Amino acid sequence: MDSPSPSQQIAQLEQRLRESESQCAQLQQENNDLTAQLSSLRGLAENLPCFLFQTLNKIDGTDFSMTYVGSGIHRFGYSPQEIYDRPELMIEMIHPDDRGAYFALVDDCLNDASLPFQIDMRLVSPSGDIRWGRVRSSAVRVSGEYLQYNGVCIDITEEKLTAARLSESESQLKLALTPRDFGAFIWDLTTDLVTLNSSMFPAFGRPTDSEVIHVREFFTAVHPDDRQRVREVLERVIASENAFEDEFRVVWPDGSIHYLSDRAVVQRDATGRAVLMCGVCWDVTPLEQARGELENKVVEKSVELEAISARWQAISDCSPDFIMTLDRDGVTRYINRTAPGVTVEDVLGRPMMDFATPEDAAAITEHMRATLENGEMRSWETKFPHGDGVLDLLVRCSPLVIDGEIQGAVIASTDVSELRKMQRRQAHDEQLLRELWQLQEKERQLTALEIHDGFVQYVVGAQFAFDAVRYRLQDEQHPALEDQVKGLEMLRSAIVEARRTISRLRPLVIDDDGLVESLRYLAAEESDRYGFDAAIECEGEYEDLDPLLMGAMFRIVQEGVSNVRRHSGVAEAHVKVKREGDRIAIEIQDNGKGFDLSKVSNERFGVRGIVERARLFGGSAAIDSAPGKGTRIQVKLPTLARQTELHALLQTMAPNLD
Fold it and tell me: What region holds the PAS domain (predicted)?
């Protein structure tokens, strides 16, 4: 069976490229989904009461800059961009009363980088609101003159308010221990009479009629729900113990409930019979109220933390990434999912390095050291072999910082196996396309040579013969002279058209005189044939370039000039070709009517051909145009042919090509 023709091969390749583009669109959709999930994670992080930051400080204190600010700073009334634009805002937002302590701590830490930076201070928002921030950070020396601080600022406003309320409660407790709320008593167990140190005894909330009362009056004041229990405790103590300690509730005449704390000792006679109980009693209601408020706060915060934890767990479970946490020793403590053939139990409790391939072990060890010791964020690619095959993973690793200290690392690994397989296929397709293009250029060159050395030579010979016959017929005044002149003109037109066809196939001047002369030939042809002025300027040497690359450069300029002539509405274009080192820049510009690039049909190969040619040779093309403002095409190409690069890539990936 005959092998497919170049045109058939190109059609097959175009079909494969369309399939690749479809797969790329699918991957783009997946990437969009990942971006949406990342946005959700960031939104959740923004609701946490803290923000991360990173600063770069000159040791002598003369220079300070913010290299990173987390979005959680919105909680304090500022945005990360405001801080980046004006790093001094990080100082201005500190409450004036706290700046002295802040600067003193800064001086101490800059003098001794081993000191942790720890301070609680008030932060003032642009609207004047004041919130408390707990700053915890540590330094990493990045040079002889600079320290890098990585830390976190936690919103502790609620904690400070709670502490203030607790302090107030403690003050109230102290007041409760004043004589008004504090009482001493002596209970005569033989008569059940109780002698009080004051008629204003805390159990009753009112002055008693006498400082000597019967014990039943005391039990009348005890809360009904506590009365029986208190009786039983007292009876047990009197019967067999020597000390009494208890807390219980009493009801005052106004109906309010108060908490009392009693402490007493029992005195016995020579026979061991209890005769006296001496003790003290004080009102601890404010303390109990404060304790109850704190317990409620703890419950509320616990519920909130459980909700946050549940949301994080749900996000982690829904993420297509492999998310894991490590401790300071690099041991896996959590993972949300595993590869086929690997269980969670296989991973938990084992060092992550147990799963590194021998080829990647050294590099991964260095990445982990940089994260766990220096707090650096690292990313790398690796292969993970498992029961069903090998995964290509894109790994991102960041430190897990708690209270300003690195407690471990968080790792997110994305499975990019399909993407890498797509890239390998694309590289293979591009290599094949270049080879087909090279074959096509060779065929164009051979066809041009055949026309030039065959057809053109015969037609030129026929022209000379016709010229000789014309002179003879002219002398004889032959009636066929007019027809012969018409035939001669047609031969001359055929020669011109044949040479134009050769130029369209591949100007032979490229092979004979190089790129610069071929571009000048192009400009001359545009001027002669269409009256179009293509001003071409070339800088640099091009003799050493790959012939295929020179052919692509010629086609790009040819297509660009042709587009200007046909669509711009002006009669001139400016072309500049410049080589600097291993880079080539091509610029084609006109002052014509311009166009809307988004409305150009995909069936118009002019613009798309320029872009695809540039991409195929490892370069890029940018087209800047707008209606009424002209057009500028900028193409950048590497001087080294991409064929060698693609070949090396295919060699490393060939076993995985499907």
Answer: 76-113, 169-241, 341-375
